[in-house]
From TrEMBL:
It holds the Pfam family Bac_luciferase. The keyword Flavoprotein applies. PANTHER family: ALKANESULFONATE MONOOXYGENASE-RELATED, C2H2 FINGER DOMAIN TRANSCRIPTION FACTOR (EUROFUNG)-RELATED. Keywords: Flavoprotein, FMN, Monooxygenase, Oxidoreductase. This is LLM class flavin-dependent oxidoreductase. Residues 150-236 form the Luciferase-like domain. It comes from the Bacteria. SUPFAM superfamilies: Bacterial luciferase-like. InterPro entries: Diverse_substr_monoxygenases, Luciferase-like_dom, Luciferase-like_sf.
Length: 331
């Protein structure tokens, strides 16, 4: 591990409140079953442990805020015996904590499928292995009492990320979350969802700036738009279905890294978002495009950091170091 992220000094001209937050969602990159009609048993360059290591190291090189991994993420497409491995995301992020230095590691672990105490223990392990860079992601429909049962034990070491796909859950997320992931297709919709979240946070006695709203984005990048569109067609042909249909809750961005940087800047400048969580359509092309194309473009405009501001995920996200007692309906 190189020490460059430890020694770089933050850009003093960068306004902390104006900083854009960027995350990478690798959930869809995990192993899965493949249709029998496909000409090969797995995609070229299918994900394995070493490639996963390379991806998260690339994300850290770009000083991204976090990498998110879902609770059904696997490096192999089949289960072993009777083991379902519901804590796979926790195991993987815990291991990634040992090979990274500053990148936030967010694991989706359901307190409905696992005892809240077990979830808290898993997050404490990730935090210990990563030096305080653990994050916990949960679905917006999860009952408040279960979310609170976990956050009461780990909120100081593992920020809570609530993923919302139903507008009815936005107020709940504003009360409970440190980070809210939303699906929005228009700038106006994103801005309204962010307003609802921040209002709910204020009504719960919290500082609205202590709740970040990140929009999910599915990226297909290329050296020019025609190349990106051609790659999307190739992905559709390979999967045997429209790839974008599986990401209908996200913004679909097809174009160059500079096109993506322009979209990120526009939405952030409009006050619609605090940042984005990018799901790559291609592990190498889109992750590299994000780190080596989008990030430098945003840095050149003073909109993104060139080093990490601290050692923990809370510091990277710019969240208060002391955590308020979160209130909820108890449903």
């Amino acid at each position: 591990m190189t020490p460059q992220n430890r020694t770089n000094t933050p850009n003093p001209a960068l306004n902390e409140r104006a900083r854009i937050h960027l995350g990478l969602d690798l959930s869809a990159a995990g192993a899965r079953r493949f249709s029998g009609h496909l000409p090969v048993p797995a995609p070229v360059g299918a994900l394995n442990a070493e490639r996963l290591n390379d991806l998260v190291r690339t994300a850290e090189r770009g000083t991204l805020d976090l990498v998110a991994i879902s609770d059904d993420f696997r490096l192999q497409p089949e289960t072993i015996g009777l083991l379902r491995g519901r804590l796979d995301a926790a195991v993987i992020t815990s291991r990634l904590g040992r090979i990274t230095d500053r990148l936030g590691l967010v694991a989706t672990i359901s307190p409905e499928s696992n005892e809240p105490g077990h979830v808290a223990t898993a997050l404490q392990t990730i935090s210990r292995n990563s030096g305080g860079r653990a994050g916990w992601q949960v679905d917006g429909s999860t009952p408040d009492r279960l979310v609170q049962a976990v956050t009461r034990q780990v909120s100081s070491i593992a920020p809570t990320v609530v993923s919302v796909r139903n507008h009815a859950h936005l107020e709940r997320a504003g009360r409970l979350a440190d980070v809210v992931r939303i699906g929005a297709h228009t700038l106006e919709d994103a801005r309204e969802q962010r307003r609802i979240v921040r209002t709910a946070a204020l009504e719960a006695g919290r500082d609205a700036d202590d709740v970040l709203v990140l929009v999910d984005l599915f990226a297909v990048t290329g050296p020019d738009r025609a190349s990106a569109e051609a790659r999307l067609d190739l992905l559709d042909a390979f999967e045997g279905t429209e790839v974008v249909a599986a990401h209908s809750g996200s913004i679909i961005q097809v174009g160059t890294p500079l096109d993506l940087a322009d979209l990120i800047e526009e939405w952030h400048a409009a006050g619609a978002v605090d940042g984005f969580v990018v799901t790559p359509s291609s592990l190498v092309a889109d992750v590299t495009g994000l780190v080596d194309g989008v990030v430098p473009a945003l840095r050149a405009k003073g909109l993104f950091r060139d080093s990490y501001p601290g050692a923990t995920l809370r510091e990277t996200l710019g969240l208060a170091s002391s955590v308020r007692s979160l209130t909820g309906s108890g449903r």
